[in-house]
Amino acid sequence: MTGRLSSAGTGRYYFSGHIEGTTRDACRRCLTEVDVPVADDVHVLFAESGGEDIDDPDVYEIEARDYALDLRPAVREQWLLAVPPLVTCREDCKGLCPKCGADLNLGACGCAPAHDPRWDALRSLDEQAR
């Protein structure tokens, strides 16, 4: 993390910076562990308690008598917002078999293809169109 903290008026401080790193998450299709790069620009406003900005959820409250400013909670929140919510190990990941749980990226599992009866009406329309 790099950044700059500057005064933004009486009892207010503005932090502007850049966060960058890697997080590990499971692929949403096959559950393989994936390293995910995370990078984002961070812009945060800190204000002393009792100010007019305190009701704003994007403003972080600080005590008027504090001599140090802890950036960790604000940066942690920005980091969590920058992490992709859904991760895949690769673009063409085939996922897991819904019946036996085999990783389909390693090959076919031998289970019969799943048949969902909810799609039968559309299948019959497709067959009629042919």
- The pLDDT mean sits at 90
Shape, principal axes of CA atoms? elongated
Write down the secondary-structure element order.
EEEEHH
Low-confidence stretches: none
How much of the polypeptide forms β-strand, as a percent range?
Answer: 25-35%
**Cα radius of gyration in angstroms:** 25 Å
> How many E strands?
4
State the end-to-end CA separation: 59 Å
Widest sheet, order of strands: 1-2-3-4
Please describe the biggest sheet, giving its number of strands, its sense, and whether it closes into a barrel.
4 strands, mixed
How many structural domains?
1
Number of helices: 2
The helix content, as a percent range, equals 10-25%
Which structural class fits the helix and strand makeup?
A: alpha+beta
Structure description:
The structure is a single chain. With 130 residues, the chain is of the alpha+beta class. It has one domain. The protein is 16% helix and 32% strand.
